[in-house]
Amino acid sequence: MRRITGEIRAKLIEAAGVSAYFDDEESLLSHSYDATPMLQAMPEAVIYAQSTNQVSAVLKICHQYEIPVYTRGAASNLCGGTVPVHGGVVLVTTRMNRLLEIDEENLTATFETGLTTKALHQAVEAKGLFYPPDPGSMLVSTLGGNIAQCAGGLRGLKYGTTKDYVIGLTAVLPNGEVIHTGGKLMKDVAGYDLTKLLVGSEGTLAVITEATVKLLPKPQATSVMLAYFDDMYAAARTVSKIIAARIIPSTLEFMDHGTILVVEDYAKIGLPTDMKAILLIGQDGHPAVVEEDMEKMRAICMEEAREIKVAKDMREAEELMTARRSALSALARLKPTTILEDATVPRSQIATMVEKIAEIGAKYNVRICTFGHAGDGNLHPTCMTDARDQDEIERVEEAFEEIFAAALELGGTITGEHGVGIVKAPFLEWKVGPAGIEVMKGIKRAFDPKNILNPGKMFAGQTRKRVVINR
Ligand SMILES: Cc1cc2nc3c(=O)[nH]c(=O)nc-3n(C[C@H](O)[C@H](O)[C@H](O)COP(=O)(O)OP(=O)(O)OC[C@H]3O[C@@H](n4cnc5c(N)ncnc54)[C@H](O)[C@@H]3O)c2cc1C
């Protein structure tokens, strides 16, 4: 990889505009890390992109001189996705944040990818429409980041994830060429599906500058309840029974005992702290269907739950959802370093996986709490630790390695929604096999033969250790 010389710097400033180019110490430092703990590397320049043409001009220069480019939205990813491990340029998208169109005839929205997820939700909901993907980070996360990570969220079970909504993209290839994929089309089989290929590509194939997503009518009614269990297996059996009863709830979330304690201490909403597991169950849609489904689910829960609490109104429902969304923030208060992971198993294996996580935590003497999207098997084992404690961090690393292996043994995956980035790179081959890795590398070469987009990610070396800095 080349460095940014004076000549390249001048060209980049000309392409980006002087108000968009930063290489002072503070700017470099503040773009050297993202939400992932214990990863940091300094870039040489930070550029705030303002248009597709400008991104194209910047990439042409970086391509010519083989300068690495790390695309960054809100940097809320948890896999080291935006850490500039080979220096070069951090290309920030947050100034490209215009909502370009809500098309009520085609039920689509088109926007620049620096727009936040929450801003899109608010704009479409004001028109009685609905964009389901709702990552816990949606207040800050950009839609470009969601698309590049294929973000999920609390509504994934019923509505799917980001990949199920993106139908068209404008993207800049590493050589600066601009491509348009898909469009406002519900059907399109013209060639390979480049739209789907770019969704989840983690900034390694192209810079996505605009996107079109499909929208749904906004559900007329929403209802939420909590079911408290003395026994985690009872909670897991309840999840299976709900699905077996042919009900697909809009939300089916799980918190283990450790998480309940901490969330209650944080949110003070009256969660019973002696419970082994809580399910947060929601339904939305036509009021009559919501009522019927909630009643059926309440009856199923009653078979094994100690108690059930149904939200009285929308305000209380929102309070319960917010409490679940605050699980990470609540846990993060306990210790200086919080490592949130993302092992996913078939939902029939949730109880076994939660049990295994608890056993592994005990074996390595590290504190791991688990919460997550029970309905789709996506668990977030979260470790509260301290990056300065070398001995503990090594045990944490080993514990997580064992957790990923356990997930795979149960037919699961190493990441359900947070992506590979740096953190999971050493484990990717465990999931896709050597032939899978070769195909993926071939795709990368086809898009980015000079490997300038997000180098060091997805296929990073063999080491299984995180980089610990600032001890
Ligand atoms: C508190 C919290 C809760 C979370 N909850 C969830 C959740 O419920 N579900 C879930 O799936 N994830 C969740 N996440 C992680 C999630 O991936 C991100 O929050 C979100 O999708 C990333 O958006 P971002 O704008 O911050 O992207 P960034 O972190 O800036 O970037 C993420 C990746 O996308 C690439 N990228 C960003 N923008 C572009 C672009 N325009 N073109 C090409 N590549 C690009 C980057 O290079 C990087 O590889 C959570 C994270 C936090 C901190």
Describe what this molecule looks like in 3D.
- With 471 residues, the chain is α+β, with helices and mostly antiparallel strands.
- The chain contains 15 helices and 18 strands.
- A seven-stranded antiparallel sheet has the order 15-12-14-13-17-18-16, with helices on both faces. It has a five-stranded antiparallel sheet with strand order 5-6-10-8-9. Strands 1-2-4-3 form a four-stranded mixed sheet.
- The longest helix has 23 residues, at 425-447.
- The protein starts with 5 loop residues before the first helix and ends in a 24-residue tail after the last helix.
- Mean pLDDT is 92; it is low at 465-471.
- The site of flavin-adenine dinucleotide has 36 residues, from strand 3, helix 5 and strand 10.
- It comes from Caldalkalibacillus uzonensis.
- One of its GO terms (molecular function) is (S)-2-hydroxy-acid oxidase activity.
- It is an enzyme of class 1 (oxidoreductase).
- This is Glycolate oxidase.
